[in-house]
Amino acid sequence: MNRACLDALRRSLREKGARQTGVSVLHLHPLLRDGERHLPALWLGPTRSYIIAAMPKILFEAGVDSYRITLNDPPLNILDLEMLDELREALGRVKNDKHVLLITGNGTRAFSAGASVSDHLGDRVKTMLSSFHGCFRLLDKLELVTVALVNGVALGGGCELALACDFVIASDKASFGQPEIKLGVFPPVAAIQLSSQLPPRRGLEMLLTGEPIDASAAAELGIVNKVIAADDFEAGSNEWLNRLTSKSAAALRFAKIAFRKGQSSEFDGKLARIEELYLDELMKSEDATEGLNAFLEKRKPAWSHR
Questions:
Q1: Which pLDDT band holds residue 261 (cuts at 50, 70, 90)?
Q2: Residue 266 falls in the annotated catalytic set
Q3: What is the CATH number of the domain that holds 153?
């Protein structure tokens, strides 16, 4: 871990506050084996968890029962190319040797407000989509249980990331939405998620209106498992997670595999076909370019309907 990353980590932990992690003092822990490399880690004292990697925009921690990935670019935790590359690296290092992988965002304003709009323009869109969807393909292949801890708004790519997890725990201040249609585009991953996880008319409503829903409405629709008061979010989440970590990690893994086989979702194939529609047709439309540029220029789009 280089000094720049270490300094960024310390700043981040100060911003988060030791109250969230139970950490009062950080100290270097002996080198931990990670595949063929030895990496320095930071031991988080009484929590018995440690930092495996502190990248500029992602924190990757491991504990006795869980891995934890924190989107670490508050206040909005935008999924730009840098964060997506780091997220993909962290997901690639998750092993199926614990009960759960937790994904959360630093701060209370946003889990993530979505992918960077500027990364959708010009030649960057192919790079962005490849990196972004690479994260979902890695998540889809994980055998351990994945849980999103949504402590604020989850919009666009942030909503897609939350819904890609097996379970979603949300604070009562959280909200979920896919506003891409307002920019003249649509969210490829959410097109799969909303059509499979929600009743068809409600899923299509979220996709076509771009209007967000609060945590209670999301729970009623079945895309949130538990809503917890924001002031009690950490303790309440830990209590809910204990329902999983008290079980056999191996049994959880095999049960999830069996459930997925019953679904026969073919996520990768569906996503590939939607990617073609997105890149080869949608992104060549006049309205896609107009909508994205209007957002960046902070003006109302002038739709040509082409």
A1: confident
A2: no
A3: 3.90.226.10
